[in-house]
Structure formats: structure tokens, C-alpha cells
Design brief:
22 helices, globular, alpha/beta, single chain, seven-stranded mixed sheet, 566 residues, 38% helix
């Protein structure tokens, strides 16, 4: 039960509110983008002190009067100011490996999860007044800080932004006659901060007839965020090209660049693509957040049996691991997570990519440049003379690259690469179609994995639901009694989408002796798949997705959208 539901139940049980009032108050809270507790207090229906006491009784969580408590600044610094302000909480003391945190919403699982990851402490929440916590935050951290956002390629220019700045007000300043360069710097800073806070993976700036449309891709879906006036289109796009080190006079040809952002001690890379279109130059910024790479295979949404097979293949000194799936299915994140786990001073790890997405310390990375003859095949030949232990090839696109990579995996290197196929067994047919000899595929491949990304249900607002029978039939799904399906509802924590974050669904094909015989015998993909499912226990993509839907992690609609019929 969510915090809002527990609060509603307690208010009605104590006779402080009637059932019919709750619906109106909830709608009012949603329209004002406030919590139900805030609206109840503002309407004078319950005092904040009484509300905290009521919640403490309902949740069984102790309360604390922060007005009588002095917070040690050293303890406060355990939690970053940004997190404290975002979730309205403040650490008050620690005992050994336990951290006591005063919270306005002690049932916010996102806050609790973030605190555990950030602090490495076990978190014990206590209830405190919202106003008292905000006052304690000001005392512990000072006034709302400027967001220290530093952009590489800025030539020393900067324009810090505060919590009260908005993109709309900055745009109005840009339109004024006396505006200099500072407003456009601030506008781009604000756009980047907003995108990062909304967990966007891409920022799209698209000139249209009436202005400049800005959209963020969040959890794989594009959402329109702003429409900027046509008058400032050129200023904004030119500024982004300067940041990315691109030619600001060239708008007829596509260009690619990159820049870095440092925000709250967190460094994020942006890959920039400029494409000439009808009404100007469309700019897409791909967010490359290196913090996503350190989470490891255990947190990518893979089931335990799949992880064990992956870890077994990765632990081998040589062989080839292939990750397959369409564009945007998380293949690069999976490979980089593996590289991060393998990265230590005893190994020489080299990658050849187009483009180099994440720049990793301790790993040699080569950027493909076909214009000067540095193709995947030519680069792979060269880097194999550098005595590598682990090689990652960004993508196998042709026979020559596949041939060299597979032969390398037979001569002592662990080779990782990606391929565009619908499922794991189809990768074999794809390689043979390229011209690779079946015996070479059979000898080199140790594991082939296929994956997709599905949106995760927001655990704060998901609702149990009986799936439609026609949907179950289309998915060929016969759920057991223990299966509990949920539907997306929408709340302030997930921007009313009902989903928050994404997870992988995968199928893992381990190549054993019989699979090798099938490959050498030029067996069809369906024959390899049939054997893998019935004898090796491989879980097909759709079945993996259905299991996660039955666990309440995603919806059947998401699974149907990203998987094909078996």
C-alpha cells in the first residue's frame, strides 16, 4: 500500500475526513503537483503535528521533533544536498553501519533505495514535519545552491543556475534586446539539468515551422518538454555546436561531436548529432552516464539462472560472447557492464567501436574511421598485435570483421561483440549468411544472448489488474495461481506515466557439443532453438518477459510490444 493510501486510510479511520472528500483532495493535489498531506494541511483539515502523530501510529515509525535537535554537519554530509532536497529528508545520526534519517515520506521506496546505494548504510527512517526538515536542510547545507554545471568546450564561459531558475524565464531574457551570451548558456544548462533529473537518455532539439521543439526520451519514449520561439533557434543550436567542437558555419552536412557535463560531482558525456532538415538543423544529444555502467549484470534485470550462464562464459579465458538485439535494446550497456567487471590491472582490454560511447579508464579504446581506412577489420587486425586479453568489437557488420574476430577467439582472446538479430539462435544463421564457415562459428561461440528492454512499473502507483483474455491468448500465456499482474496507473514519482526505469528481458544460448554439431550440420535456427529450450533449459525472450510480468515488474502490454511470436 502506498504512502498516500495509508494516509487516506488513517484519516478516514480517525474520522478526520470522509471518503467522498478524499477524491476531491487527491485531484486537487494532483493538479497542484503537491502531496495529499500538503493539501490536507493547507486546507486546515489537520495540523501538521497531528498528521505526523497519526502517520507514526499507522506506520509504526517513531517521530522526531527536529526543532529541538541539532544536526551534526559531518553526518549531514553523508547524504548529498541534491538528494536531501529532492526527497525532503535529512540524516540525523549514525550508529555503526546504521543511519537514522528524518523523512517526510518514510514509505518512498525510491528515496530508501537511493540512500542505501549512496551511503552503504542500513537506513532507519523516522517521521518529522515537512517544514522542520526543510528548515534543517537550510541549516545543514545553506541556501538553495547554484547547480555547479561545468561544460567542456566552454572557453571559460559559465552561467550557474539555481533551483528557482526556469527555462521559460531564461528564454524571455534571451528575447530581450539587452540579452548577451549569458542567457543562452543558462538556457542550455537548465535544459540539461532538467533532462538529467528526468532520467532522459536523449534530448531532441527539432526545428519546426513555428519554433524549436524540445523532447526528452524517458524510458524509451519521447515526450515533448518545451517549444522555444523561432527567434532564438539559431542561438541555441549554434551554442550547442560550439560546445561540441563542430563547424558553426556548416548547416548543409551532418556533423557529430561530443562534450562533457559535470553536475553535482557527477560526470556525464553527451554525444551530439546534427542533421540538416527542412526548417534548420536537428540536434540530438545522447546522454552517456557512466554511473549506469558500474551496476553490473546483477542489476540489469536478468534472472539468476541467466546471470550464472553469463558469468560462466565471461570467466573463460577465451571464446566469443555475442549480444544480439535491435537498436536501443541495451546491448552496449550489457557489454560495458561486462568490461567494467573484467577491468583490472592484470588484463589488457581493448575495444574497437563506432562511435566510442563511454570512455572507460584503464581500457584501450579505438574509434573506427573509414575515411582514412580504419575500418572494424583493419583496426581489429592492428589491435590483435597489441597482445590483448579481452577484445570488444562494437558490431560485426561484415564477413571480414566476423572472420578475424572468431579466429582471435580461437587463439586465446575473450571476444565480445554485438549483432542485429531477432533472437539468439538466429545469430548463427546471420554469421553463416555473411560467409563465415559453420565450423568456425561452432568452434568460437561460447554464449549467444538476445535481449530487449521493457519499461518497469512504478512500484509506488501500480495497481493489481486482471489481464484481458484476448491478450493472454495472443501471448499464449496460461498464468498460474501465484501470478499477480499489475497495470500502470501514474503518480508524481513517475511523471504520471505509470512506469519508472527499464529492465532487460533476455534469452541465453549456451553453446554445448550438440549445439556445435547442429551448427556444423547447418541446422535451421528453429532446430537449435528447440534443442536449447527442451534440453538446455533456455528461457525464450517472450517467456522471460511473461515471468517478469507475472512478478509485477512490468506489464503484458510491454512484453507484447517488444517480443515476437514464438
Amino acid at each position: 500500500m502506498s504512502f498516500k493510501d495509508r494516509l487516506s486510510k488513517a484519516l478516514v479511520a480517525k474520522g478526520l475526513l470522509k471518503e467522498e472528500q478524499l477524491g476531491q483532495l487527491a485531484r486537487e493535489a494532483g493538479a497542484a503537483k503537491k502531496s495529499l498531506a500538503q493539501v490536507v494541511i493547507e486546507r486546515g483539515l489537520v495540523t501538521e503535528t497531528a498528521l505526523v502523530g497519526l502517520l507514526a501510529e499507522e506506520l509504526g515509525i517513531p517521530t522526531l521533533s527536529l526543532s529541538k535537535y541539532r544536526i551534526d554537519p559531518a553526518v549531514a554530509r553523508i547524504i548529498p544536498e541534491r538528494i536531501a532536497r529532492q526527497y525532503t529528508l535529512i540524516p540525523i545520526t549514525k550508529f555503526g553501519e546504521r543511519l537514522v534519517v528524518a523523512m517526510a515520506d518514510p514509505m518512498n521506496i525510491f528515496a530508501l533505495d537511493d540512500l542505501k546505494v549512496l551511503t552503504r548504510y542500513a537506513v532507519d527512517p523516522v517521521l518529522a514535519k515537512d517544514a522542520d526538515i526543510r528548515r534543517a536542510i537550510e541549516q545543514a547545507y545553506g541556501q538553495p545552491s547554484n547547480l555547479a554545471i561545468a561544460l567542456s568546450g566552454d572557453n571559460g564561459e559559465s552561467a550557474s543556475v539555481t533551483e528557482t531558475d526556469t527555462l521559460d524565464s531564461t528564454v524571455q531574457l534571451m528575447l530581450s534586446e539587452e540579452a548577451g551570451d549569458a542567457p543562452v548558456v543558462k538556457a542550455i544548462n537548465l535544459m540539461i539539468v532538467e533532462a538529467l533529473r528526468n532520467r532522459a537518455s536523449d534530448i531532441h532539439l527539432e526545428p519546426v515551422e513555428q519554433g524549436l521543439r524540445i523532447r526528452y526520451r524517458i524510458d524509451g519514449r519521447l515526450r515533448e518538454a518545451h517549444r522555444l520561439p523561432k527567434a532564438i533557434q539559431s542561438t541555441v543550436l549554434t551554442r550547442l555546436k560550439i560546445l561540441s567542437g563542430l563547424d558553426i558555419t556548416e548547416w548543409r552536412l551532418p556533423q557529430d561531436g561530443r562534450f562533457k557535463v559535470r553536475l553535482d560531482a557527477r560526470e556525464v558525456d553527451f554525444r551530439v548529432s546534427v542533421l540538416p532538415i527542412t526548417h534548420g538543423g536537428k540536434v540530438v544529444l545522447r546522454v552517456l552516464d557512466q554511473s549506469n555502467l558500474s551496476i553490473g549484470l546483477d542489476h540489469l534485470g536478468f534472472l539468476p539462472e541467466s546471470i550464472e550462464r553469463f558469468k560462466e562464459a565471461v570467466s573463460r579465458p577465451h571464446g566469443m560472447i555475442l549480444v544480439t538485439g535491435p537498436t536501443g535494446s541495451g546491448k552496449s550497456t550489457t557489454l560495458y557492464s561486462i568490461l567494467n567487471q573484467l577491468n583490472n590491472p592484470t588484463r589488457n582490454i581493448t575495444t574497437i567501436e563506432d562511435p566510442v560511447e563511454y570512455q572507460l579508464a584503464g581500457i584501450t579504446q579505438v574509434q573506427v574511421n573509414p575515411d582514412i581506412g580504419l575500418t572494424f577489420a583493419a583496426g581489429l587486425r592492428a589491435l590483435l598485435r597489441q597482445s590483448p586479453d579481452v577484445v570488444m568489437v562494437g558490431e560485426i557488420r561484415d564477413f571480414e570483421t566476423a572472420d578475424i574476430a572468431m579466429k582471435a577467439s580461437l587463439t586465446g582472446q575473450l571476444v565480445l561483440s554485438t549483432l542485429h538479430t531477432n533472437d539468439a539462435p538466429s545469430a548463427v544463421s546471420r554469421l553463416v549468411d555473411m560467409g563465415v564457415e559453420p565450423f568456425l562459428v561452432a568452434s568460437s561461440a561460447t554464449l549467444i544472448e538476445a535481449q530487449r528492454l521493457v519499461r518497469k512499473l512504478c512500484p509506488n502507483c501500480r495497481k493489481p489488474a486482471e489481464p484481458p483474455k484476448d491478450l493472454l491468448k495472443r501471448l499464449n500465456c496460461s498464468p498460474g495461481k501465484e501470478a499477480t499482474f499489475f497495470r500502470a496507473e501514474g503518480c508524481h514519482l513517475c511523471n504520471r506515466s505509470g512506469y519508472r526505469g527499464r529492465m532487460g528481458i533476455i534469452e541465453v544460448l549456451m553453446v554445448d557439443e550438440h549445439v556445435r554439431e547442429l551448427i556444423v550440420g547447418k541446422a535451421q535456427s528453429w532446430e537449435i532453438k528447440d534443442y536449447a529450450v527442451t534440453r538446455l533449459g533456455m528461457t525464450p525472450l517472450r517467456e522471460d518477459g511473461l515471468r517478469k510480468a507475472a512478478m509485477g515488474l512490468t506489464t503484458l502490454e510491454e512484453v507484447l510490444q517488444v517480443t515476437s511470436e514464438e
